[in-house]
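Q: I have three molecules that I believe assemble together. Could you output structure tokens for the complex as a whole instead of separate predictions?
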Amino acid sequence: MIAILNSHGPLREIVPATRSLARVSSIGARAFLLEAPGEFDLAAQRRIWALSQTVRGWTDISEIVPGMTNLLAIFRETPEDPESVVARLLEAWDDARSIDLVGKTIEVPVHYGGEHAIDLPALCDLAGLGDREVVRIHHEATYRVFALGSAPGFGYLHGLDPRIYMPRKTVPSLKMAKGCVTIGGMQTGVAMLTGPNGWNSIGFAELQMFDPMSSTPAMMAPGDTVRFVPAWIEL
Amino acid sequence: MSAIDFSDPSTIALLADALTAAGVSGLEISRPGGQLRIVVAAGEETRIDVSVTARPDSRGVSPVVVRAPMAGHFCPGHLSGSAVSDSLPRPVSGSEVLGFVRIGPVLLPLNAGRPAVLTKRLAEPDALVGFGDPLFEIEPQS
Amino acid sequence: MIEIVETGPFNTVQDLGRQGYRDIGVSASGAMDPLAVRIGNLLVGNDEGAAAIEVQTFPFGLRFDRRTIFAVTGADGAPALDGVELLSWCAYTAEAGQVLELRHPPSLARAYVSVGGGLDVPAVMGSRSTSLRGGFGGNAGRPLVKGDRIALGDSADIVAVPASGLAVVEPVVALRDVFPDFVDGTLPVRALPGGEHALFPDDGDAFWSQTWKISSRSDRTGYRLSGEPIKPTTSIEMRSHGVVPGVIQVPPGGEPIVQMSDANTAGGYPKIAGVIECDLWRLGQARIGSRIRFVRSTHAEARAVEQAVARYVEDVRNTSAMVKRALRAMA
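A: Yes, here they are, computed for all three components at once.
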């Protein structure tokens, strides 16, 4: 009876996360998440990109999902020896050298302010800045696509000026429009779907960035550079 | 007396290979009464019956026998229910499942094919039955 | 062609899911009970990953406009063809004009209709599954409505199914040694501790020991569980990371969410555990309002179950093909 085989050895649930060591945990039996130690920055993400290239080449891998300074590795089947999988991932992380993906540059025209900028006043209050200043800070920065996820084609953009960081909402907007230019914590992005959204909207972009029928459905890819170009500022 | 040892797996494998090579896809041996049926499937629907069992006369007058459509284990009643101990005779519809012939995980449902009275169960639960073996006796109702 | 003659909301075309696009934010989708789809397809002579109809609201009805082999798998309860009751987990041949009807199942959640040749909707990113959130795939990226007509692929298997049907011993019976039965009406669901398990007090006891109810705010995206809220001892800021169906996240309110087939590709809530993949089909068959309990599992157990399921599917594939060949030869 396999069903009652529930004696638990000391599972490696969490590889101790110190300041310098990566951590590997499991999601179900086939997926393993490696989280990089240290800061949420481009240096860490470059090593995640390198790790992604390595792990993608493993023959027992079904799919990988690079996240924000982390990587989810989904295996074809439940590994016989999960400890060795953890060890392999940690070793691959240790061996991962920083790489810089050669990406394209995407310019996204933005209508700042206006009817979709529902959270701009709150952001101004939080930052203690005027709306023009907030908009200027947002469009003057250069962003890198760290990873895609959450919605088809949605790129998590790194490079937001700390002066306009704004925590995600505790109660999401129920029907935020596709195209809203948003800030979530220390990240920014463009909403890809109309629906519930916990990020803070400060503008709107018309640009189509996902086409399911295309051979390359997502416009953005990790490593790409993104600039927001003010097409219209309505304050 | 043949010198072939039929308990030797390699002999059986050799025979099976020879039959397969000859295009034989089915072999039925039943006892007692002696039936041998060799099925040669050359194409989608071609077959050669070397020896055919006596088939039930499906258009005959009562009673009629429901026979095994192929070899397997006989499972009377419904798998999930334990209501095998139905009191007989009882009326059944044409599509009602009387039982199954089980081949591994595959089940071949058995039914009367027409409204009838189920009068007898002719095989034991889980018995290994061969093609054409009688499983139920029914009296068709017009 | 088949024509939908009756349907509730949220019935969709699904296959085994859109694998390989999570890294661009595309959810896998796919059947909530993939095992039922695999077996249904094998019964009607398809590849196991052909597209089928997932019915989760009833009654549901469709009309065949040509001779078609079909099977209804997944939920309990009997489908009917032109009013005649049929077996589930059984392939039959429908004649042109006949109507298949599915009524509310007695205890399970989702039924699957597989048809010979599969549903011939366009593959989008390698799959025919409907992505409701993305609005693509399946039948024009939306749920089925009355009057929808769906083309069928070609099927070579039509002669092989006897009039009385060709069935299988269903998974819950064939695999009862590896899938523990309900305990006092509560479904045991096996899971492995997740990345933030250690943040919950007493080795996560409050999570593992209580019986959770699947709340009404549950759907193909996720099951929200109601029960005594559980809280981590410290709150941590998580960075967004990839997730897979089965992940059990604990949002600030303390009532866990199990992500299901339409799971978002990314998440950031603390993960207390993750359901082992081979138990997801049973969760997919659990209804709103029903009770579940999580059982701590191991990779070794998950692997053993996975292999038992693979053996069963392989056995169904080989034996059903053999039986069809034999029946055809003896016809």
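A: One point stands out. Residues 42-60 of chain B have pLDDT under 50 and may be disordered.
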